[in-house]
């Protein structure tokens, strides 16, 4: 028999199950690796787009009515007075930028608080920042300071503060008389519940040197890119290992057959 035909027979024909299994492992590894690279590229593109929008002129929430489409991811300044009694604490939010030695999974709250805009009959919800959860008693809210007078708040516009998985219908509690602990924030539902005219977005407050008990060192959108690259490497390595295992075991079988035939 022709040596090439004999080799093909040993590697493929007599090992159909092994060949199909190897092809599946290679396809899975390559596909998952390409997907991880795509995720990394998407994050890099989003970060570049956000940076470009932040370099545009700063919007003023008090001087016009802004649509989400024109204000999204742009810097904005707002002047008004906080309404602390309507605060909403969003639970199960990881610390944006873990401190040195701290666990990246440290859980806490985002503090959502409405700001009644000065000289306008409109409310703008502010993501004031992150505070750690009391691990002994979940119902104990972090101690934060809220200025009583008119304040200027500068930040970046987003459609929402981010979402987490939750059980139930997701409807906000009808009790508006005290601060609430929620899993997610529903802008339209909150406006309907309170009868407010609201801006169609939220403003994520940026760090301004305030000592109010809240952390505003927000993680960049490129956070996790290195992790995607590491995952991609692992998936591609799996594909290579699958191919090498199939090839080496096939060659060993081929050489054993040749030795047995006295070739």
Notes on the structure:
The chain has 2 domains: 3-44 and 234-260; 56-205. It contains 5 helices and 8 strands; from the N terminus they run ααβαββββββαβα. The relative contact order is 0.20. 37% of the residues lie in helices and 22% in strands. The termini are close together. By secondary structure, the protein is of the alpha/beta class. The model has no long low-confidence stretch (mean pLDDT 86). The chain has helices at 3-11, 16-54, 68-71, 187-194, 225-260; strands spanning 59-60, 75-82, 88-94, 107-117, 123-132, 151-158, 180-182, 198-205. It has a 5-stranded mixed β-barrel. A hairpin with a 5-residue loop joins strand 4 (107-117) and strand 5. Helix 1 (3-11) packs across helix 5 and helix 2 runs antiparallel to helix 5.
Question: What's the shape?
Answer: elongated
The major β-sheet equals: 5 strands, mixed, barrel
Contiguous low-pLDDT stretches (5 residues minimum) are none
Strand content: 15-25%
Distance between the termini: 11 Å
Strand runs, count: 8
SS field, number of helical segments: 5
Widest β-sheet, arrangement of strands:
2-4-5-8-6
Overall structural domain count = 2
Strand/helix succession: HHEHEEEEEEHEH
Helix content: 25-40%
Helix/sheet category: alpha/beta
């Amino acid at each position: 028999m022709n040596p090439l035909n004999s080799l093909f027979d040993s590697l493929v024909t007599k090992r159909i199950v092994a060949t199909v299994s190897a092809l599946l492992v290679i396809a899975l590894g390559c596909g998952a690796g390409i997907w991880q690279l795509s995720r990394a590229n998407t994050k890099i593109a989003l970060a570049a787009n956000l940076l470009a929008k932040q370099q545009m002129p700063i919007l003023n929430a008090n001087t016009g009515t802004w649509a989400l489409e024109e204000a999204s991811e742009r810097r904005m300044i707002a002047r008004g007075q906080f309404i602390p009694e309507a605060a909403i604490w969003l639970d199960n939010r990881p610390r944006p930028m873990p401190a040195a030695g701290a666990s990246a999974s440290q859980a806490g709250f985002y503090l959502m608080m409405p700001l009644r805009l000065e000289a306008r009959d409109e409310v703008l919800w502010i993501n004031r920042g992150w505070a750690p959860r009391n691990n002994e008693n979940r119902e104990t809210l972090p101690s934060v300071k809220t200025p009583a007078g008119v304040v200027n708040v500068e930040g970046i516009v987003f459609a929402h503060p981010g979402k987490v998985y939750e059980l139930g219908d997701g409807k906000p509690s009808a009790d508006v008389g005290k601060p609430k602990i929620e899993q997610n924030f529903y802008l339209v539902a909150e406006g309907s519940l309170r009868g407010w005219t609201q801006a169609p977005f939220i403003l994520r407050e940026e760090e301004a040197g305030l000592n109010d008990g809240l952390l505003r060192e927000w993680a960049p959108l490129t956070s996790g890119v290195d992790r995607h690259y590491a995952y991609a490497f692992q998936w591609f390595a799996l594909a290579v290992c699958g191919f090498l295992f199939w090839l080496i075991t096939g060659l060993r079988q081929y050489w054993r057959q040749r030795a047995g035939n006295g070739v």
